[in-house]
Amino acid sequence: MQEKGNISIHTENIFPIIKKFLYSDHEIFLRELVSNAVDATQKVKRLSSLGEFKGELGDLMVEVSFDKEKKTLTISDHGIGMTAEEIKKYINQVAFSGATEFMEKFKEAKDANEIIGKFGLGFYSAFMVAHKVELNTLSYQEGAQPARWTCDGSTEFEITDGDRTTRGTDIILHINEDSEEFLDEHKLRGILDKYCRFLPVPIKFGTKTEREPDGEDEEGKPKYKEITVDDIINNTTPIWTKSPSELTDEDYLNFYRELYPMSEEPLFWIHLNVDYPFNLTGVLYFPKVKNEFEIQRNKIKLFSRQVFITDEVKDIVPEFLMLLHGVIDSPDIPLNVSRSFLQADGNVKKINNYITKKVGDKLSELFKADRKAYEEKWPDIGLFVKYGMITEEKFHDKAKDFVLLPNVKKEYFTLNEYKDKVGELQTDKDGNVIYLYSNDAAKQHTFIAAAERKDYDVLEMNHPIDTHFIAQLEQKLEKTQLKRVDADIIDNLIPKEITVESVLSEDQSKEVKELFEKAINKTTMNVDVIGLNPEELPVTVTMDEFMRRMKDMAKTGGGGMMSFYGNLPDNYKVSVNGNHKLIRRMLEESDAAKKESLARQAFDLALLSQGMLTGADLTDFVNRSVDLIGA
Fold it and tell me: How many domains are there within the chain?
């Protein structure tokens, strides 16, 4: 048998189109060819189970091999094989009316899995690296004759008698000069490990040496001998293909270690398994995420029928869960024709919603089952929950029952619990409940202590995402405001009907104000003399809550007006406690220079308590302190 002809396409050469538009990453060819071999193998198993193939299945392994001298790379299987007529049908009739229509038809392909799952475009990716491709095949059908197909990358092909004696297909790639890197064992093993690590049919790539028992020596100690065995590079039954009831915690942990050998153990995991209205399996792990913004995206791997597709899953997985690790496998995820990226589709949104619901259910279950253990995990999982509440309305509705608010004493409260705790005492004169919080308990200890003297509670909000979480809490909680504990003096943060009057006269207040303005000599510091409890500090330096929050949001990427506020110079409020004994002493001091020195010292102490005293100002403060002690 010998037949020559032209591949049935109406464009001069399909291969440059494939290279340029479909497959930007050349290593994809190996995924496509091995996947095709696996498909062919599974089809013969299916036919056998249906009784349509009555022969011996034999070894159903797929083998990848290469010959550096001949510059060939071969993918062999023992699948269904093809007849000469099937070669013409599946290989030659790539029937497109032209390059333009070809691109239009398949760049938005809805059924790309089917296009690629059969011999066709996936097969033609071979020409990205080969100047000639041979296909040597024998069909499973009784009486079938072996056939060989050869093509040099043009539209011309040749079909001749093949020499294969067993069912299946060999694809031999004659590697071109530009692609000889694909004749390197290390390179090929890396590609196979990336794309074929969990394929459902054993993939052989060379051999390896193992030790096996070989009796005992004269002293009765066990002996071993080295044997050569096939090197099977894949795990054909990864845990996501099994039922959760078959698996132990150790199975999940071992799989995590296999995927992420350098990572800490995960906090917990979620096994995904749904077959309606779409097919989806997988395991998602919650990693330990510390208080830095450890945005390690692209840790979730997307598979389609155990073939690795991509680790870019932003459309499938909700934004707030992009920090999770694990795998998702779905044949229903619509891919472009090269399987390189996702297409917009209703199933993607359904899957996204399903994953959101599963995560919410899991967190709710953990919270209800063991509150103490959940609280211990909160420093790690709090980021996921808060991020989810900010970005996903449906998740917010579920998470409001298990989100936790920690205070500076390391106590944890749900939203309802915290409202009950502070609602009465921390309500201001206008009926607003004020939640005080700190983003740095050590630095803001002076202000926290002032709040605690009034039996107020202070929350701990020290993660960059908390700026946005606080804004959402104020939006969602009725008549509730959040104020950072150092945003003002405590009496102004939660103003009550009863206030402390200043003992200073109007003239004395004016004198004190002018004295401090002269001593500070900074336009960014706005002095105000007020009446406070004599036990409070003589001077307090604060930044307005609104301004500070806008600046914090600008630092974490807020745009619009937040960027405007972020670019404004820092302005502070200097609150002078007219009822403090130091202020009385200053007024009684006759030496003008000493008066000013005391005012500056009190102001610098306030800066020091905020960690704002640095450089030459700090040196001056130290020297002034020594002088005052000596006096």
Answer: 4
Q: Give me the phi and psi of 17, to 5 degrees please.
A: -65, -45
Q: Select from 499, 530, 552 the last residue of a domain.
A: 499
pLDDT of 21 strictly over 90: no
Q: What is the pLDDT of residues 238-286, one digit of tens each?
A: 999 999 999 999 999 999 999 988 888 999 999 999 887 888 999 999 9
Name the residue among 607, 541, 546, 601 with its Cα closest to residue 574: 541
**542-570 as b/e: b if 16+ CB within 10 A:** bbebebbbbbbbbeeebeeebeebeeeee
Q: Are residues 306 and 432 in the same domain?
A: no
Quick one: 514 and 484 in the same domain?
Answer: no
Q: Residues annotated as binding site for ATP?
A: 32, 36, 77, 82, 97-98, 169, 339
In angstroms and rounded to an integer, the radius of gyration of the C-alpha atoms of the chain is: 36
Question: Binding site residues, as ranges?
Answer: 32, 36, 77, 82, 97-98, 169, 339
**Together in a domain, 291 and 371:** yes
pLDDT in tens, 203-248: 999 999 988 887 887 787 888 888 999 999 999 999 999 999 999 9
Question: Is there a single domain that holds both residue 8 and residue 153?
Answer: yes
Name the pTM for this structure.
0.75
462 and 379 Cβ atoms separated by less than 8 Å = no
Same domain, 131 and 36: yes
* Three-class secondary structure of residue 211 per DSSP: strand
- What is the residue range of 412's domain? 404-499
Are residues 157 and 9 part of one domain?
Answer: yes
pLDDT (tens digit, 9 = 90+) per residue, 314-324? 778 888 888 88
Whether residue 137 sits in one domain with residue 34:
yes
- In degrees, rounded to 5, the angle at the alpha carbon of residue 55 between the alpha carbons of residues 49 and 57 is 65
Query: How many angstroms separate the CA atoms of 172 and 191, rounded?
Result: 18
Phi/psi at 176 (5° precision): -80, 165
Is 224 inside any structural domain?
A: no
The C-alpha atoms of residue 530 and residue 511 are separated, in whole angstroms, by: 13
CATH number at 94 reads 3.30.565.10
Torsions phi, psi for 163 (to 5 deg) = -125, 15
Residues 38 and 176 in one domain: yes
Asked if 305 contacts 279 with a C-beta cutoff of 8 angstroms, the reply is no
